[in-house]
Specification:
- The structure is a single chain.
- With 170 residues, the chain is mainly β.
- It folds into two domains: 3-87, Beta Barrel (Elongation Factor Tu (Ef-tu), domain 3), CATH 2.40.30; 98-167, PRC-barrel domain (SH3 type barrels).
- 6% of the residues lie in helices and 46% in strands.
- The strands form two sheets. The chain has a six-stranded antiparallel barrel.
- The two termini are 32 Å apart.
Length: 170
């Protein structure tokens, strides 16, 4: 089953197994709609019932089935909260999920291949793409001034990097 991460368990909240969750979605309030989720790792996801979700100071707090005390909550800290990909909402044509970009070729507007998009890092204002080429990595800010076009069908992302950007290593 293909899973998509919608959050990361940060730490326990309270004494009864509740956990604070860092959202990994543009719509954190959707976490309150979850009935069940999968905890990753393992890659297959450990299925859990979502007993309750509420927001404290804007931060999602979840009560998961099988997590009954602070010790069990500490044991799941750092794991991803995931849902089946089939349950994800479809995106508008000009939007995409970050995981869809991994493995795409990064090229310049004239078609010169720069390398492969190896990973996506979430930043406070925008994402950063990890460009891997020839054993080196550099970070590409995922901003409209640099990203010209994303062709998911062709697995190509066209960027116009400013001078000197590709010389910086991650």
């Amino acid at each position: 089953m293909d899973l998509i991460a919608v959050g990361r368990i940060v730490r326990p909240q309270g004494r009864w197994g509740e956990v604070r969750v860092e959202p990994m979605t543009d719509e954190p309030r959707r976490l309150a709609e979850l009935v069940e989720c999968h905890l990753v790792p393992p890659e297959t996801g450990e299925r859990r019932v979502v007993e309750r979700v509420w927001f404290q100071g804007g931060v999602p707090v979840m009560k998961l089935g099988g997590v009954e005390n602070i010790g069990e909550a500490e044991a799941v800290a750092g794991r991803l909260v995931a849902i089946p990909l089939a349950a994800a909402r479809p995106l508008p044509p000009d939007r995409f999920y970050a995981f869809d970009l991994v493995g795409c070729a990064l090229t310049t507007p004239d078609g010169a291949r720069l390398g492969e998009l190896a990973d996506v890092w979430a930043g406070p204002g925008h994402d950063f793409w990890v460009l891997r080429a020839g054993g080196r990595e550099c970070l590409i800010p995922a901003v409209s001034a640099i990203v010209e076009r994303v062709d998911l069908a062709g697995r190509v992302v066209v960027i116009r990097p400013p001078e000197g950007l590709l010389e910086l290593e991650a």
